[in-house]
Design brief:
The protein has about 325 residues and is an alpha/beta fold. It has eleven helices and 13 strands. The strands form four sheets. A seven-stranded parallel beta sheet has the order 3-2-1-4-5-6-11, with helices on both faces. Strands 7-10 form a two-stranded parallel ribbon. The protein is globular, with a radius of gyration of 20 Å. The chain binds NADP nicotinamide-adenine-dinucleotide phosphate (NAP) and ligand G4F.
């Protein structure tokens, strides 16, 4: 049996799927919590689930939900994880204004439930909490560091700020090994289709093949610090391998506007984006950070982490993946 047993909430999401691949490659037994859905297909981890050398050998899935504490507690008791990566929850900032209560339960209260369960375990475990740059909101300084004060601008940001503070309290009060990864936007071909980068990459590919005629977006001026998801899951793992638990900003330090992302994506398929992109205020949020940029100095110096590739590479990878998916279908 592998010595290290990881439990991942949110294993079917973008980050959960890349983290699973990383941990399997390192010889871990990986357990993931999946929700009951009406469709059994879990596209991001289907290739692992269909691999008889992996599924039910080193990768195990358990039904559960963040609201179902008794089931979560039973899973902990049965598998005795040595590392817990808590990634699950409604992660769309815009939608958090439409579903504030369930978002805050999943992004905030669920961390409390899991920390309480972790506190009761007799075996030592390390706990990763998926914090976010959205806790900084309208930040008072740029770039932001681990010390920057929290000024969230959305229900999602508020809930994550709560869970981030709580993780610190559990570390300080109970001596638990709990880390906050304060991650800036990270993207990949596995990004959910209603996040702006994937929406743009998909539209650029489809318009170039005559399958769509336009792309409707919200705020084009907004600036984000976009990195590659594959790099960011390495940062999560590194945090739990260090001898001391701590909080780390994970970012590229480079910001680009949504307009720049659109320009780069459409250029890749030789289109002039101005002919196809429309704006609809329906996609605007009641409030949001105008610009987020992270200072990843601490994780670079302490854990030796750094991002690979740059903005152009990320855009290229995402559009290329969409073009290839279309040619296969
Ligand atoms: P994602 O693709 O939206 O995945 C979310 C995961 O949570 C999915 O596996 C989803 O399951 C699961 N989930 C949602 N509600 C649940 C519930 N009630 N019970 C159990 N599972 C539930 O998110 P991601 O991009 O991988 O991000 C991972 C985490 O990092 C999230 O907490 C996010 O808020 C945070 N984060 C992300 C970024 C980023 O740029 N990606 C940056 C900072 C922080 P289904 O597949 O069944 O929907
Ligand atoms: O892709 P987004 O929806 O990502 P957002 O809001 O920055 O949140 C993501 O990153 C956070 C880390 O900073 C995570 F915590 C969170 O879970 C999530 O992964 O939007 C990026 C920007 C925003 O300014 C938004 O207003 O793009 C702007 N935008 C413009 N048009 C749009 C659209 N966003 C979306 N989703 N859809 C649009 O049509």
């Amino acid at each position: 049996m592998p010595e290290k047993t990881a439990l991942i909430t949110g294993i079917t999401g973008q980050d959960g799927s890349y983290l699973t691949e990383l941990l399997l490659g390192k010889g871990y037994a990986v357990h993931g919590i999946v929700r009951r859905t009406s469709n059994l297909l879990r596209s991001r981890i289907e290739h692992l689930r269909r691999d008889p050398a992996i599924y039910d050998k080193n990768l195990f899935l358990h039904y559960g939900d963040l609201s179902d504490t008794t089931t979560l507690r039973r899973i902990f008791r049965e598998i005795k994880p040595t590392e817990v990566y808590h990634l699950a929850g409604q992660s769309h900032v815009g939608l958090s204004f439409e579903m504030p209560e369930s978002t805050c339960d999943e992004a905030g209260m669920a961390a409390l439930r899991l920390l309480e369960i972790a506190r009761d375990q007799t075996n030592p475990l390390k706990f990763y909490h998926a914090s976010t740059s959205e806790i900084f909101g309208n930040a008072l300084e740029s770039p932001q560091t681990e010390e920057t004060s929290m000024r969230p601008t959305s229900p999602y940001g508020c809930a994550k700020a709560f869970a981030t503070m709580l993780s610190r309290v559990y570390r300080q009060s109970y001596g638990m090994f709990v880390c906050n990864g304060i991650l800036y936007n990270h993207e990949s071909p596995r990004r959910g289709e209603n996040f702006v980068t994937r929406k743009i990459a998909r539209a650029a590919a489809r318009i170039s093949q005559g399958l769509d005629v336009d792309l409707v977006l919200g705020n084009l001026d907004s600036k984000r610090d976009w990195g590659r998801a594959q790099d960011y899951v390495v940062a999560m793992w590194l945090m739990l391998q260090h001898d001391k638990p701590d909080d780390y900003v994970v970012a590229t330090g480079e910001t680009h506007s949504v307009r720049e992302f659109v320009d780069a994506a459409f250029s890749f398929v030789d289109l002039d984006w101005k002919k196809y992109v429309k704006q609809d205020p329906a996609f605007d949020r009641p409030a949001e950070p105008a610009r987020l940029a992270g200072d990843a100095d601490k994780i670079r110096k302490t854990l030796g982490w750094k991002p690979s590739g740059g903005f152009e590479q990320l855009v290229r990878e995402m559009v290329q993946a969409e073009v290839e998916a279309l040619s296969k279908s």
